[in-house]
């Protein structure tokens, strides 16, 4: 039996961790997680658990911190294997040359590869030829193994949610659970990793996009209801769960048949949500929110990013959802390449129109040109971004910069940034819109405006995504802040 410890920086259940832990435990291994915002905190937890493998997620926004952690634990004397995984490991496997302390890098899906690696380490066998792994030999040579075909999603283990609940009471108190139904997305949006992932595997949608059998998902929900009494909501985390109309209809039929009666939310695409889909979801009386990508109020810019949903299709979709009394959330971005200030205002105004007389629920994100995405080419060609900066992994890999800042360097980008700080005020307080247009967007960004943006997003958007009450949200923010301040 091998022991694996996953590292992370933020206090949130990472679905990749729960998925991989589920596979490891099914194979007879142990898994644990360590959370912290400084190297010493993580090292203490690693030393206490003494794992055979430390799994380090190289996700772009946390790359800089995880590079520091990897070096730190080696300097402190960790003798086990360090394995890199995550988006950057998949799309930029050359990072293993930067993370010189790492022994292995995993490209693509890691469930089967990590289990095989744990098996080999347990038996003290050679693991240099495991598919999906790049392995550093003692002489420094890196063996680059090929990718294995995608596995059948119905054969995957259910997520191991105990890995977080056993770690801290904080996770036992969460009122929602994440579920991933399958893999992939049929769309090829330039700003999303899905097109890069499918391209890496050299497969089309028929192989890349898979959803588990509806009964399999229903059984998982029933298990969650039975085992985790504090869970009140299900958050389906798939990029696009409305891509298969027949799946949605069958799932809703089974949901009603088993009398599950647990609220849930899911991601969809406006052009895929027709009368049959809306009617099926409404029949459950538990679909409390559908999240779909608006991206931008400019149809021309949206099409340029290969999100070919027309303005009229958004209007039809939102009228249908209003008809069936299903709440919806529009996901949008600001700071996009080629976006003008007028485009940014158009995004907010179109979201207000699509609200159809209801309070707007809009998740506004700042665009980040993550490496290897097709939209990076547009970012450079637009002359609104510094080509050197967006290729600098230290800048892109800094958590604070990617979540709070904007990578646009042109003067108009500064006004768009300020508009984003006031976006929820603009959406929800009509009498302040003229003031925002004439005055607020000309201010200089500072910590106060950043806090306004974050707190207004929590209040108007984030809490609705997990169906949380205001008291629970306050408790969450206070506990989260305390845990982050302690660093462990």
What does this structure look like?
By secondary structure, the chain is an alpha/beta fold. It is built from 25 helices and 15 strands. Strands 2-1-3-4-5-6-7 form a seven-stranded mixed β-sheet, sandwiched between helices. Strand 11, helix 12 (245-257) and strand 12 (264-268) form a beta-alpha-beta unit. The mean pLDDT is 92.
Q: How many DSSP H or I helices?
A: 25
* Low-confidence runs of at least 5 consecutive residues: none
Count of β-strands: 15
What is the helix fraction of residues, given as a range?
A: 40-55%
Give the averaged pLDDT, no decimals.
92
What is the gyration radius calculated from CA atoms? 23 Å
Indicate the structural class: alpha/beta
Strand fraction equals 5-15%
The strand line-up of the biggest sheet is 2-1-3-4-5-6-7
End-to-end distance, in Å?
27 Å
Question: What is the 3D shape?
Answer: globular
Biggest beta sheet attributes:
7 strands, mixed
